[in-house]
Structures are given as structure tokens and as C-alpha cells.
Design brief:
Blueprint (H helix, E strand, L loop, with lengths): L1 H6 L13 H10 L5 E6 L2 E7 L15 E5 L2 E7 L1 H22 L5 H14 L11 E9 L3 E7 L5 E3 L2 E4 L3 H11 L6 H15 L10 E9 L2 E6 L2 H10 L11
Antiparallel strand pairs: 1-2, 1-8, 2-9, 3-4, 4-5, 5-6, 6-7, 9-10
Helix pairs in contact: 3-4, 5-6
Length: about 250
């Protein structure tokens, strides 16, 4: 502990074991955030997140953890939302600049690399703290079709078939490892995402109010980012026998 204390005051100093403690602490902050799950299917991508309701008086105007970046790209966020807003704004600008220059949507991985370069800069220069946020990016482009990426505060990123970030992500990932199949369609992926959230969320019973689910898919050759309505989520919960019995408090 004493050794860590001498090297954890800034991101620019390596410890003798070659670690950057501030970056590791940023990762730790994310592991306490509400869980996000991403699943790739043959005809789309599902992003599902735990919605933490802090007060019944809160007006839910827009999602806090799910954002549309461009017509072909969306993301889910685990960590400090204010940090995420900066990066999402940057991503939207980068996507629009590319479209303006080349008259076509930015390739998904190219945008992720761009964001991760910015994140990495915040681990290398003095006086800056890393962004305390991880992302799941879901997108489609003509080069590689549907793609799911995860990116970390360190600037690392990776492509996944299914993954989870946030609280209890280890438990979620082990369920995904066992139950994910390569030829899943979108509705199977939605069911699996809900099953994973059911097992890894702290709350005793699932309701549509505690979940947010979005899909990125193609309809009539147009890409569509859609949030599932509460009624649709409730119907899937009933189908999976996870719905809360009527009249029982949440």
C-alpha cells in the first residue's frame, strides 16, 4: 500500500512494477457503475443497461446511459456520465467531419480509434486525469457489417461478440460465455441480455423501469437505432417468466 501511495498521485508516473495507478483507479470507479451489456447478433446489436432510479420525482426525459452518436453508431456508458458527455460530443463531431469530407459515414473502428487516442492522451500528459468512463460501441459499416467494441479509460479497445462493463461484469461475462451463440437473431439477443441483467443486477425483481434496451439494426436497407418501449420490455420479461407479479412492490 505504501508503495502505491508514492506513485498514485499522477497519471504520468510509472510505479516500479510498471503500473499507472490512476488509470487503474479509473477502471475501479467504472466497476461500481450500473451494468451495461452488449450482444452482437446476425441481424443487429443489442445494448442493455441497468437504469438506477434515484427518485420517483425525477423526470426521465432522455437516457442517461445510452446515446446515439451517428445514424450508424450508438453507445452505452458505464462510469461518470459528465466525462462521457465530453467524449460523446467529440465522437459526434468527428463522425460529422468525416461525413462532410468524404460524403459517407465514418467506419466504426476508425471512430473508436479516434476516441481512444484522445483517452490515451489523458494518461500521458501532466495535470490531466483520465476519463472515468468505459463505453460499449455498437455500429454498422459497409466494410465489416455489425460491430461491437468496448473501450476503457486507458485508451485500450477491443472488438467483442458479447461483453459487459460496470458492476458485476465478471458474473455477466461468464453467463455470456456459456449462453452466447454465433447465429443468434436480434430477439434471442434481447432475451439473453435481459437474462444476464437479471442475474447480475443487485435488485431482487426486474421491471421495465429498471432496464433500458436499445438496438442497432437495418430496416428497409436503412440503419435504425431504436429504444425498446417499456411495454415491449415488459412483454419479454413475461415471456422469460421474470415479470413481477401484479400488485407486488418493486
Amino acid at each position: 500500500v505504501e508503495m502505491a501511495r508514492r506513485y498514485d498521485s499522477r497519471t504520468t508516473t510509472f510505479s516500479p512494477e510498471g503500473r499507472l495507478y490512476q488509470v487503474e483507479y479509473a477502471m475501479e470507479a467504472i466497476s461500481h457503475a450500473g451494468i451495461c451489456v452488449g450482444i452482437l447478433s446476425k441481424d443487429g446489436i443489442v445494448l442493455a443497461v441497468e437504469k438506477k432510479i434515484t427518485s420517483k420525482l425525477l423526470e426521465n426525459i432522455s437516457s442517461e446511459k445510452m446515446y446515439k452518436v451517428d445514424d450508424h453508431l450508438a453507445c452505452a456508458v458505464a462510469g461518470i456520465t459528465a466525462d462521457a458527455n465530453i467524449l460523446i460530443n467529440y465522437a459526434r463531431l468527428a463522425a460529422q467531419r468525416y461525413t462532410l469530407t468524404y460524403q459517407e459515414p465514418i467506419p466504426v473502428e476508425q471512430l473508436i480509434v479516434n476516441i481512444c487516442d484522445k483517452k490515451q492522451g489523458y494518461t500521458q500528459f501532466g495535470g490531466l486525469r483520465p476519463f472515468g468512463v468505459s463505453f460499449l460501441w455498437a455500429g454498422w459499416d459497409k466494410n465489416f457489417g455489425y460491430q461491437l467494441y468496448q473501450s476503457d479509460p486507458s485508451g485500450n479497445y477491443g472488438g467483442w461478440k458479447a461483453t459487459a462493463i460496470g458492476a458485476n461484469n465478471q458474473a455477466a461475462q461468464s453467463i455470456l460465455k456459456q449462453e452466447y451463440r454465433d447465429n443468434m437473431d436480434l430477439s434471442d439477443a434481447i432475451k439473453l441480455a435481459i437474462k444476464v441483467l437479471n442475474k447480475s443486477m443487485d435488485s431482487t425483481s426486474l421491471t421495465a423501469e429498471k432496464l433500458e434496451i436499445a438496438t442497432v439494426s437495418r430496416r428497409d436497407s436503412q440503419l435504425e437505432y431504436a429504444m425498446l418501449s417499456a411495454a415491449t420490455v415488459e412483454a419479454v420479461l413475461k415471456e422469460l417468466d421474470l415479470a413481477q407479479p401484479q400488485g407486488e412492490p418493486a
